[in-house]
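PROTEIN DESIGN WORKSHEET
SECTION A - STRUCTURE
LENGTH: 313
TOKENS:
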């Protein structure tokens, strides 16, 4: 038994749920009544990149009168985009069950229980159950589900990955916290400045040694004595390296965009730019348009062809 960590009381939140057991803090599995989700196969590696796309991908499913928070999860090559409205959740819990916003710990989503729902639905009450429909968690009447057995929701059904919940109150106080942090940071920088002055004395000795080594090199290579020569050589190779690095970055981006539904048709390296042409499945066009907003590339659509243009130094 671990006496230092203890999970909060876990509840499955749905409309008209029974009063939960009294607890200091609650972790909440949101039912589909309190979030929207969409799954997409995207050539994106990092969660922060996917999160930038969430508002565009979920745009048609969101209520313009609500403020949403977004969360993304990846399973194989499939990204799940979630959106929930903290104000809606807090008001419902406080008005109906007396649960205050500060009592909310971590949140989860019913879709994270897919491994259970794929075998048996979870019973909510005598009329409704939580089941899978088109591979998405859905609340449906038992008459529609027609299952002989139902799983009872317990503390053991906690999903593997939880997400920290930030109350509206925390969001409002974030600015004042930042101001305090800025004062602390300024003080620390002042202390660090003193340390750098002290370190500078010891570095001066090392610098003199490096200068002696440089002078020895210049004696062996008289042509380098000219500052103009050294600067010309430096600029020449810096420009070449900068251009090659940019080309590698663009090629890496294009490779991530490539898939069975987004096929690279042509790649050209020109003097001041690199140009790639993709053939895109018509069903993927909206998704690609949303994705390109995050890539800062010039692009042009013509039917099912998209041409991407990256500038080179």
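SECTION B - SEQUENCE
RESIDUE ASSIGNMENT:
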């Amino acid at each position: 038994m671990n006496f230092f960590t203890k999970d909060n009381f876990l509840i499955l939140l749905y409309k008209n749920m029974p009063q939960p057991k009294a607890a200091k803090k609650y972790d909440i599995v949101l039912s589909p009544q309190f979030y929207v989700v969409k799954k997409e196969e995207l050539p994106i590696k990092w969660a922060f990149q996917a999160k930038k796309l969430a508002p565009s991908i979920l745009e048609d499913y969101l209520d313009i009168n609500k403020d949403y928070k977004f969360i993304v999860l990846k399973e194989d090559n499939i990204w799940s985009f979630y959106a929930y409205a903290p104000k809606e959740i807090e008001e419902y819990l406080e008005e109906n069950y007396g649960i205050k916003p500060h009592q909310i710990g971590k949140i989860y989503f019913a879709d994270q229980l897919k491994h259970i729902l794929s075998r048996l639905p979870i019973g909510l009450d005598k009329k409704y159950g939580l089941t899978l429909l088109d591979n998405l968690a859905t609340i449906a009447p038992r008459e529609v589900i027609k299952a002989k057995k139902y799983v009872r929701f317990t503390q053991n059904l906690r999903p593997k990955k939880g997400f920290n919940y930030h109350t509206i109150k925390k969001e409002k106080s974030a600015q004042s916290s930042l101001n305090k942090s800025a004062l602390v940071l300024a003080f620390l920088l002042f202390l660090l400045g003193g340390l750098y002055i002290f370190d500078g004395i010891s570095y001066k000795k090392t610098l003199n040694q490096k200068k002696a080594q440089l002078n020895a090199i210049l004696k062996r290579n008289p042509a380098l004595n000219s500052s103009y020569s050294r600067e010309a050589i430096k600029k020449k190779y810096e420009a070449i390296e900068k251009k090659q690095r940019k080309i590698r970055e663009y090629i890496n981006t294009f490779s991530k965009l490539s898939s069975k539904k987004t096929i690279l048709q042509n790649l050209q390296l020109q003097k001041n730019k690199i140009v790639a042409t993709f053939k895109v499945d018509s069903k993927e066009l909206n998704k690609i348009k949303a994705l390109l907003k995050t890539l800062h590339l010039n692009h042009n659509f013509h039917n099912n062809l998209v041409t991407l243009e990256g500038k080179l130094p």
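SECTION C - NOTES
The longest strand covers residues 262-269.
Confidence is low (pLDDT under 50) at residues 1-5, 173-178.
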